[in-house]
Known about the structure:
GO terms for molecular function: oxidoreductase activity; zinc ion binding. The chain has twelve helices and 18 strands. The chain has 346 residues and is α/β, with parallel strands linked by helices.
Amino acid sequence: MKVVRFHAPGDVRFEDAPEPEAGAGEVKIRVRSCSTCGTDVKISKFGHHHIHPPRVMGHEIAGEIVAVGDGVEGWTAGDRVQVIAAIPCGECAECTRGRMTICPNQVSMGYHFEGGFAQFMVVPKEVLKVDGLNRIPDGVSFAEASVAEPLACALNAQNLARVGEGDDVVVIGSGPIGCLHVRLARSRGAARVFLVELSRQRLDMAANLVKPDAAICAAEVDPIEEVLKLTDGRGADVIITAAASGKAQEQAIQMAARQGRISFFGGLPKDQPTITCDSNLVHYRELMIIGANGSSPAHNKQALELVATGAVPVADLITHRLPLEQAIEAFGIVERGEAIKVTIEP
Ligand SMILES: [Zn+2]
Ligand SMILES: [Zn+2]
């Protein structure tokens, strides 16, 4: 079969690999859709300490079961499924407390296990053990289902930041994750959602699709002043940084309303992990700064439901559909910000 495999930083190949077979406790799928994201770009350029090459990339996975290994119950050939990306152990102190996103033993599809940029893929028993193989609801396409994984991550962040009725929400970063955050915040009853982005071109493309109440180009105006203006000086109730930018995190703290919640959704580059925070703003205004790390199996199921019910539409966010042989080109499209979501259809 054909796969897209990481060999070394800067060396990702479209090549042949032996077709895998489902062992005991495993399920084999025909991959129908595997979406790309900024993480794939990062891996292709810099590698990752959890990836021992060669490794098939791809972690936003949807497909169809073609074989079921010994001892697997409840699944049959032909079932349409979505696969979690981050796999918690299900047994540690955090997992047993229901906090699966912060499992210290977490492993991942496309990192520790062969990923979805392939014609066929084996769903490891570790995924099945934590109920991480999800039935795709009727009416949801494979491409839409592949976006459930990033949507699940956004859902985790908005749960932690308690985005809800009447909130003024700012999303910083207008990539696919930023677009999902805008839509999700609306579905949770946010009063207004403002989108902030440095690149005018990326901002316009995203704003055309997700229609924020204001689209603020941070290269043209001061986003803090703009948000204060839009909120009569109050600031925003929730600010979500969907960008790998320390400056965005600093701005987020400064544009928060009293008792505002700030979600650091996007991580920072490893060599620049520190920011400047006016701690007195946090103290006197009772601000809450909240991290967000991936999603749990339950978040993935809820994300599929949000898509199925139409609460969070994602079909129009998939701006590019490419065959497997063009996956490496897709990383370039993602990196240059020419697309919202690029999905690969092997
Ligand atoms: Zn991703
Ligand atoms: Zn665990």
